[in-house]
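Design job #97: recover the sequence.
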């Protein structure tokens, strides 16, 4: 699942919960899914951030030559 798909899924779950389209017992697995997706998204964003920092550092190195 891509980052965009994960974010869309979070939006879907949020809408279901806000509109009270699920029962309390049905909401528990959804909340567990939210926690899982949240962790995966945070991990992906951290990797992207690290990659950007690395690329910026390389750019600084090449401009100093």
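Job complete. Output follows.
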């Amino acid at each position: 699942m891509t980052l965009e798909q994960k974010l869309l899924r979070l939006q879907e779950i949020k809408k279901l919960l806000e509109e009270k389209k699920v029962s309390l017992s049905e909401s528990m697995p959804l909340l567990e899914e939210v926690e899982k997706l949240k962790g995966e998204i945070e991990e992906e964003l951290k990797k992207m951030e690290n990659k950007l920092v690395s690329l910026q550092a390389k750019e600084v190195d090449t401009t100093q030559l």
